[in-house]
Amino acid sequence: xxxxxxxxxxxxxxxxxxxxxxxxxxxxxxxxxxxxxxxxxxxxxxxxxxxxxxxxxxxxxxxxxxxxxxxxxxxxxxxxxxxxxxxxxxxxxxxxxxxxxxxxxxxxxxxxxxxxxxxxxxxxxxxxxxxxxxxxxxxxxxxxxxxxxxxxxxxxxxxxxxxxxxxxxxxxxxxxxxxxxxxxxxxxxxxxxxxxxxxxxxxxxxxxxxxxxxxxxxxxxxxxxxxxxxxxxxxxxxxxxxxxxxxxxxxxxxxxxxxxxxxxxxxxxxxxxxxxxxxxxxxxxxxxxxxxxxxxxxxxxxxx
Length: 304
Known about the structure:
Blueprint: E1 20-24, H1 35-51, E2 55-58, H2 68-78, E3 81-85, H3 91-103, E4 107-112, E5 126-129, H4 135-158, H5 184-209, H6 212-226, H7 232-238, H8 241-256, H9 261-264, H10 267-282, H11 288-303
Parallel strand pairs: 1-2, 1-3, 3-4, 4-5
Helix pairs in contact: 1-4, 2-3, 5-6, 8-10, 8-11
């Protein structure tokens, strides 16, 4: 499954009664596009979903603690609409698109103009945007995507024979996910097993990437989060946190690196820059408090 970044708006818990637009897309560097490019694309897709009155959320995000692959499959099955960006033909993205198509549920495929069509999915309409993210083209693309989201969901609900993909090839039995009822004790036991596996994975990954003190802090916070009605925002913090914070540092450096020392001393100017950064950093699952820490860290390093 893809390693996905998180958004302050994309990753937080979905309000009751709000329908979700699942998003599947690359997040790491691929096909000549770095991670910051995909952060921008995520913002574009998320804004289009909100324009259609849906709450955008990466399918890897959820309000529960558990194995991320389980969460991805469940969201691919449950979300009323999924937008899948196949730009760069990321293998994980293509796999998740295949799962959504196997469920025969509403999906909208988008791609940039530098990515060719794939043979298997070419019968499905693709919405296209410019890879250079030119403003006027993106504004038009967002309008088309918002309209497509509304129309696709409406069609799926009004037409009992609706089928986005399988209808092109014959009659099939659509894959379904079984629902199991378990006692609260069984549920908690399973969640603890899932948590133990995640901690084991984090342990091997973070010991290689983070100093011991940083590793201990992350694990301690991770365990503390499990005991407190964890939100999706908390989960985002622990999803590959080292990589997410490194990306946040690059965005901070990009935003402040062009400013002179005099400009950095101007509080109003600094606050404007921080306000501009917040939604982009939020898409990486980095909290506002942590953003302030990272900015302070950058300013200290720059002053030395």
